[in-house]
Design goal:
441 residues, mainly alpha, Growth Hormone, Chain: A, globular
Length: 441
């Protein structure tokens, strides 16, 4: 491709987004550049501390449990307290908890701190996603979510390679580096990002760089105006939104598969005689591939049928991990990572865009919290299931199960998307009215 064409494509991918988005993007990049705990938790506990795979799975599950609790609470805080305060609370508490992880050695203490780290890490996600939806025009959201996902994986790719070698010298240093980077992320949010929460009338808050107001404009292609929504929405309303909860359920099923890249894959590679640095290189392929192809792939899929994209991503995820059963060398492990990474590249912006389209303006925090909950519950369930399965049935059974679960998810997307628009992105479903007697969350 000529350099001129590449340059034009790059400019089109980043142009037209508000300044506040780029500061939010920068905070995400800083945060992910310091990622260490989740990536190397399984190896740290089994190879460095000498605990069993089942115990490592228990600790990872507690990390997920923290995320489960935080996801709902943070979603409510995002709507009530605001996006910016929620992010600051989450990021500063995460920095403290990760620093503690560097010094605790008792099994009970390690488990307790993992719970705190999981809660802090998940608490910022509904706020970040809600703010991004607030400050970016509806027609630019798929691109904005892709750029944010690109930042996540750029930071992840760099941190995985560096942290893999840091782990061979000192795990403690890695935890302290992550704590410092998370604190730096909070500083960026505090200094550069204004609040973006819509007011009680459903109007978008003014944000530096220009925010898109959906109130009175009908919102995204055919969506009801924001002012047509009820003034308040409780968690009961979210749970009764059948179409949205179907998306959450399928997200959970797919998240169970993707979690294996951080739970089962490092254990399998260690059992194959490979080092933590080898795992760091293999998992870095995930981030590097996303950095390399996320933006051009997003340009390709932006106007494609979301039903086919979601089905394809589920199959690629399931069978990508299924192929790991045949891996025995670093090269083959890295090749399987490439397959399921393509599933991530397709699924992330498509599904996130669908979630935003189905979320009412005034309750984005609660809806994003419920969506985040699907990944947090998967973080809780996947390590427990994986640890037990690996200990009692072996890794081959686990990889075969991934292929089966991927097929189930693909069938689920087929059923879910049948009632939605096939040629364009789906339209939001009506949100049930809150009963006057019901207390809102």
């Amino acid at each position: 491709m000529p350099l001129k064409t590449i340059g034009r494509a790059a400019r089109e991918s980043v142009s037209g987004l508000p300044g506040a988005f780029w500061w939010l993007w920068t905070s995400t990049l800083i945060n992910r550049l310091g990622a260490f705990v989740v990536t190397f938790m399984a190896i740290y506990l089994t190879a460095s501390r000498g605990f069993s795979v089942s115990y490592a799975g228990l600790v990872a599950a507690l990390y997920g449990l923290g995320g489960v609790v935080a996801s709902i609470g943070a979603g409510v805080l995002t709507d009530r307290l605001g996006r910016r305060p929620t992010m600051l609370i989450a990021q500063s508490s995460t920095a403290v908890a990760v620093a503690l992880f560097a010094f605790v050695t008792d099994p009970v203490a390690i488990a307790a701190v993992a719970l705190l780290v999981g809660a802090g890490s998940s608490a910022s996600r509904p706020a970040v996603q809600a703010m991004m939806a607030d400050i970016v025009r509806p027609e630019d959201r798929i691109r904005a979510f892709s750029l944010n996902y690109w930042a996540i994986n750029l930071g992840f790719a760099v941190s995985s390679m560096v942290a893999g070698f840091v782990a061979e010298v000192s795990y403690r240093a890695g935890f302290l580096i992550e704590s410092g980077m998370t604190l730096a992320c909070a500083v960026v949010v505090f200094v550069k990002l204004p609040e973006s929460r819509p007011d009680q009338n459903g109007a978008e808050a003014a944000v530096s760089g220009g925010a898109a107001s959906e109130a009175g404009a009908g919102g995204p292609a055919g969506a009801p105006a924001a002012t047509d929504r009820p003034a308040r929405t409780g968690l009961g309303t979210v749970l009764r939104d059948g179409r949205f909860m179907s998306v959450v359920a399928l997200s959970f099923v797919l998240a169970l598969i993707f979690q294996q890249g951080y739970v089962a894959l490092p254990v399998a590679m260690t059992r194959a005689g490979l080092s933590p640095a080898d795992y760091g290189i293999a998992i870095a392929v995930n981030g590097l591939l996303i950095v390399a192809v996320q933006l051009p792939v997003t340009r390709f899929i932006e106007r494609r049928d979301p039903r086919r994209l979601l089905i394809a991503s589920a199959l690629l995820a399931g069978y990508g991990f299924g192929l790991t059963a045949f891996a025995g060398s670093l090269g083959v492990f890295a090749l399987t990572v490439c397959v399921w990474t393509l599933a991530e590249i397709i699924n992330a912006p498509t599904q996130t865009g669908l979630v935003v389209r189905l979320s009412p303006l005034h309750a984005r925090g609660r809806y994003q919290g419920m969506y985040t909950l699907s990944w947090s519950v998967a973080s809780l369930a996947a390590p427990l299931m994986s640890g037990l399965m690996i200990d009692h049935l072996g890794t081959a059974s686990l990889w075969a199960s991934c292929a089966v679960v991927g097929t189930v998810a693909a069938l689920g997307y087929t059923v879910l998307m049948r009632g939605l628009s096939h040629g364009t992105r789906p339209q939001p479903a009506p949100v049930p009215e809150e009963r006057p007697t019901e207390a809102t969350a």
